Amino acid sequence: MRILIVEDNSDIAANIGDYLELLGHAVDYASDGVMGLRLATENAFDSIILDINLPRMDGFELCRKLREEHQLETPVLMLSARGSLADKVTGFQMGAWDYLVKPFEMKELSMRLDALKLRLEPNRSRNIVVGDLSLNLDEWRATRSGKELSLHRASQRVLEMLMRASPNVVSRQDIEFSLWGDHPPGSDPLRSHMYELRRELDKPFEFKMLKTVRGVGFAIRAEEDSHGN
After folding, report:
1. Which of 43, 66, 134, 141 has its CA 20 to 30 A from that of 79?
2. DSSP conformational letter for 69
3. What secondary structure letter does DSSP report for 224?
4. CA dist., res. 9 & res. 59, Å (int)
5. What pLDDT, in 10s, does the model give residues 19-30?
6. DSSP secondary structure of 107-161
7. How far apart are CA 159 and CA 166, in angstroms?
8. Alpha-carbon dihedral of residues 118, 81, 5, 17, nearest 10 degrees?
């Protein structure tokens, strides 16, 4: 899994990160709420480990913004020394999926993350629709305005990531990591997949759904969500 740790205590963040990396997870860090919100909305994570008492924006507000303003359903596991029932209720009301009180055992943290992943899988739609674009994951069949798109499996996986994140941007790094982990082949392995995707998805149509955000990554947007980009 790719996991974002939002924690202002550098020792706690490092300990969690080291443990999760030993288990094979990829880890990113944010030391305050504003940075955490930016990373969470600009990248694709499987889970977010979120402290409550953060500088610049607390964990409750960050989680609320993810759910209400950005419509992100990434599982959030809240960590806090605040173990009262009232705090736990607030955390769940803001959109947390789980709540773990400090201090905790790393093994329990790992088990809870695994449980969140299992909870997420049944909720992932097998048919994703953005505007006139549809992707059926059971048949691995993509169509736009009824026209079937001829895509290799890797390009279909890129399309799935972009459609699930739509209208948000998915970074090049996230796409490459999803396809090849930490060992991408060649100097620019993503180029051919994006070329194929753009050719099939946009070339026959007047409106171009695949957007390149220079220096950041790519996004799929329906015409009404394009904002002129």
Report:
1. 43
2. I
3. G
4. 14
5. 999 988 889 999
6. HHHHHHHHHHHHHHGGGS-SEEEETTEEEETTTTEEEETTEEE---HHHHHHHHH
7. 10
8. -90
Six-digit token pair at 164? 């699930």
User: Which of 56, 87, 122 marks a domain boundary?
Assistant: 122
Closest of 117, 52, 120 to residue 87, by C-alpha: 52
Q: How many CB atoms lie within 10 A of CB 44?
A: 22
Q: Which residue range(s) make up the domain with 41?
A: 2-122
- Is residue 109 domain-shared with residue 21, that is, in the same domain? yes
pLDDT at 122 over 60: no
**What's the CA gap between 158 and 179, in Å, rounded?**
8
pLDDT category, 105, cuts 50, 70, 90?
Answer: very high
